[in-house]
Amino acid sequence: MRIALDAMGGDHAPGPIVAGAVQAAQRDPALTVLLVGDEPRIAAELERHPDLPRDRLPIVHASEVIGMHEKPVEALRKKRDNSISRCWLLLAQGEAHAVVSAGNTGAMVGAGLFNAKMFLPGVRRPGIAAVYPTLLGPAVLIDVGANMHPKPEDLYQYGVMGAIYAQHVLGIDNPTIGLLNVGAEEDKGNELVRDATRMFRSSQFADRFVGNVEGRDIHDGRARVIVCEGFTGNILLKSGEGAVEFLFSELKKELGLLLPRLSPEDGQLLVQRLRDLKTRYEYHEFGGAPLLGIRGACIICHGSSDDRAIRNAIRVAAVMAEDRISAEISTALTSGTVAHKL
Amino acid sequence: MRIALDAMGGDHAPGPIVAGAVQAAQRDPALTVLLVGDEPRIAAELERHPDLPRDRLPIVHASEVIGMHEKPVEALRKKRDNSISRCWLLLAQGEAHAVVSAGNTGAMVGAGLFNAKMFLPGVRRPGIAAVYPTLLGPAVLIDVGANMHPKPEDLYQYGVMGAIYAQHVLGIDNPTIGLLNVGAEEDKGNELVRDATRMFRSSQFADRFVGNVEGRDIHDGRARVIVCEGFTGNILLKSGEGAVEFLFSELKKELGLLLPRLSPEDGQLLVQRLRDLKTRYEYHEFGGAPLLGIRGACIICHGSSDDRAIRNAIRVAAVMAEDRISAEISTALTSGTVAHKL
Q1: Which of A20, A324, B62, B212 is the most exposed place for a label (fewest CB within 10 A)?
Q2: How much is the ipTM here?
Q3: Do B71 and A185 touch (CB under 8 A)?
């Protein structure tokens, strides 16, 4: 299994990125990680890891880097020899089975969507899935930002792809699928959602489709795959992160006054429990967000990813590229049970 | 000041609704609350409050009630003599200066939007504002569900109305205005947001406009008014409530184990602090969500509103109907600094 890793992508690249690759290669002897980016800088990072399996960590030079805040389309056009495009090229050429980056998300998605030959058969447009917690365990939110103007068919495909991902990667049997909407009733919301509802109802996934899910119910776990347009999904995902961040900062203030009154052991216990709870919300635990609908696999990591997050992302990318996920997605989307129902 | 209150609207109406009205009338001797709904049931509730100012709590009979989960449009058409429509009629006839309801939100908004004569001069389409907490204090999110298909001009108007509301009701001087978007850069998102950005930049509010706000930054307070389309705003608002609900239920589990190890005083302190924190998120504290752009005032309360929430909502409705909010909104929206710039 060969993974193309954008060694230059991320807030603190290449340090933690290379470290994550080293750890992944050490843990899985069947894994080769292609370190894509500035050769001297990557080589210097590798020097810090003396016991590494060097032959399974080849460097693929790319002279340019797209910054985290650069405009994606412009950057991809101007910086032809950038590490992200090089990763995708390796995937297209069959040199890699999957791509992983913690760099500029827009550039990563843009480069992937640019070449429709990289889409799985039957896929109209890939979508980004994110994992979030519910009372019944992890669930999938899709799309969280790849597609700003989806058609009903796109939403339907996101549901199918999200369900297959939830089954294979999160281990959820026959995951339920819901549509994010402003109310539970079927006449709510906009036409996009209403048309997508009809598609789900007349599809092979009808028995798994639980209808509309309101914002306040996304954490109850009734739907283990929640489908939405990229604009709303992106805002929802990020606002969730923001709310947790904010809430814990307030919590810290509230509990800070209590802490001195506790025994050192109890105080430590309290801090540890809060930290555990917060960790459950941080999605680097889940190894990044996959761009679903791509041949092989593509994992997009948070810019702040540390070595552990990168290690996890590489592992998930390897599982996804190896597993039947791609084949199942194509089968489900080309079997034609739905395609012409609208 | 006369407020038309939908006495039949809310999960537990008319009990807590009438109780809230009694409290509001007791506290403000200049206030008359018209109790709209089933006369015998409301009269029975009033019996429970012997010391009330009866002359300032007249009952206006309406024979029908729109249920919390009825389809708004259908219900408004079929149940002509419902309490919500009656409230709006009282406003239109000048019998009331403001309307308040904890009933079916869709019906409340639908009945209000039905009669464009009730819009303030210059207003294209009213929008619902919600108050939420930030690190710098309360902020306004608008629209959270009145307008599923806004035009750029609508978003601009929401910004203006939200800012005037934030100034008068929340006491924020010259509140900043931002647009909810998937990225901070101006080329991000969809056309709607980009066009609205141009309108703000060329308007009299240009110096207050802080550009795009991402989901993760809504709690930092950089924008004290955040503008978005109704679909996204509704999902964002409700998912925020859902996330807080979920987080506190998890927190309770985590801290439940710690509680027996604390002294009774410390335990009580911990519980109290968490309760305080949660309360800050519950928007009945803020007295409901106003439908901005309406002549007089309209406050939409949460279905679960208790007597205190209703009392607050009546107070806010009275402030809004009395204050210069309406005049300021009309002046800002008819002064024409923007209207034709797009």
Answers
A1: A324
A2: 0.80
A3: yes
